[in-house]
Hints:
By secondary structure, the chain is an all-alpha fold. The chain has one domain (about 30-420): Amino acid/polyamine transporter I (Up-down Bundle). It contains 20 helices and no strands. The longest helix has about 35 residues, at about 285-320.
Amino acid sequence: MRIQNETLSPWRKFVRGMRRSWWPYIAAIGPGLLAASAGNDAGGIATYASAGATYGYSLLWVMVLITIAVAIVQEMSARLGAVTGKGFADLARENFPIRVTALIMCTLLFANAGIIVSEFVGIAAAAELFGISRYIAVPVAAFVMWLLITRGSYSRVEQVLLILSAVFLAYIASAVIVHPNGDEIINGLKPTIVQESDYIKIVVALVGTTISPYMQLYVQSAVVEKGVSINDYRYTRIDVLVGTVIAGVVAACIIIATAATLHPLNIVITTAQDAARALAPIAGDYAEILFGIGLLGASLLAAGILPLATTYMLSESLGFERGVSRSWQEAPIFMGVFTVLIVLGAVIALIPGLPLIDVLVGVYVINGLLLPIELVAIVSLVNNKELMGQYTNSPFHRVVVWIIVGLVSALSMVYIGWTIYEAVLA
């Protein structure tokens, strides 16, 4: 008979202790990391590359502030899901007047529609970097994503998407191989403001692509579907915070890579594909390959997460059954809506002559302008004592959150006002 209380070696005790300490955190990885990584999609990469090429390192300080804001907003969304067991649209439908709910849902649907197209545009652009026709790459990618979501369980889908998120290491590598100037990076972390509308526009776009509304939709719904309870939430909180920091570092690396190589030459960037090709003669073919791999992986990741987040929202707001782990028979509306979004996104992305800069960067300017509506809704739900109990924001947390909402709203208003002013002068 095996002795139950066998003596363990110090090494085995150490390994067993480490496993018990770290396994819950490893098991919790998913919603936070995927939501934050999805923000660095085709439009995000184009926006970051444009920021670096146009303004050099001078916008790095903006990314630091935005990353902090993302962490705070994502944590609130994840906490909402863990405490209530419901997605954002469910809570909005139950706690806001019907007109307010309709405004929120229409705003989010409008914001997400253009980004779904941009993900397939990104897939097409990345494929063409490697000599593959977009008319082959986009349909294949759309079918693979459709098959993954509609035929897999949530855990399988999460595992595949997490593997895809590893491609962002390519951008960290690209920032290293271009040998950026350390002193200029430090200077870029010091707040500076350029008084011109294009500067304000790129800042709004940075906010819109980094704090995209669909990221909050996804992280909350994913926490619910994964079955995270408030008792396990401390592990998911780490996932959210670590994922946000990683995504912020990746975004900064894209800015650094293009600031070091393209900014000195005054090269205008309209897409991530332009950035990849422009890097080749300056930093070598490896830079172009790394940028292309990152663009493809990022677009594939977001092409799965964005339609999924939108489908969660629509199904929740209308009260239909939803969930990746459910079958077509159990959730026909959920699966059908996801299918329609994938097909429409892929078809529109294949339209010849599609203005890529308007689709990729312009969409995120719209996101930045519409973001305050969703933020106000999230903060209102989190601060609802009847809904959240003891898990509402602390007084200090409330002040910080409302400052974020105020700054984002003010930035949007400044951009709108500046645009109107220049239009009148013209």
